[in-house]
């Protein structure tokens, strides 16, 4: 009898083909596994770039307004991280029409 940990369950969920994104490129397919993890990585990368560029903008007075806006956008983007984590754990699945008939 094997015991499963939360880590095992998480890996199983993330390896589920239902969580993959597939793009057809002619005769080829691009398959992105663990799409929520990818979204989180991209979000954090863009967030880091925004805050870094925003910080550099503060070296010159004429760029300070841009720096402030980059900080504001980055701060709003910080809310995306928990939204992505929440979306990863919740999926809305469309039921077939026959399942709606009672």
Automatic annotation (TrEMBL):
Keywords: Membrane, Transmembrane, Transmembrane helix. InterPro entries: YrhK_domain. The keyword Transmembrane helix applies. Residues 34-89 form the YrhK domain. The keyword Membrane applies. It comes from the Bacteria. The chain crosses the membrane at residues 41-60, 66-84. This is YrhK domain-containing protein. It comes from Cobetia crustatorum.
């Amino acid at each position: 009898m094997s015991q499963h940990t939360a880590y095992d369950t998480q890996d199983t969920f993330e390896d589920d083909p239902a969580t993959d994104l597939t793009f057809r490129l002619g005769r080829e397919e691009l398959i992105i596994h663990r799409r929520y993890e990818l979204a989180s990585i991209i979000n954090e990368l863009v967030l880091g770039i925004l805050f870094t560029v925003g910080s550099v903008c503060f070296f010159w007075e004429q760029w300070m307004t841009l720096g402030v806006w980059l900080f504001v956008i980055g701060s709003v983007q910080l809310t995306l991280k928990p939204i992505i984590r929440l979306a990863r754990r919740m999926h809305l699945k469309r039921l077939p029409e026959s399942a709606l008939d009672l």
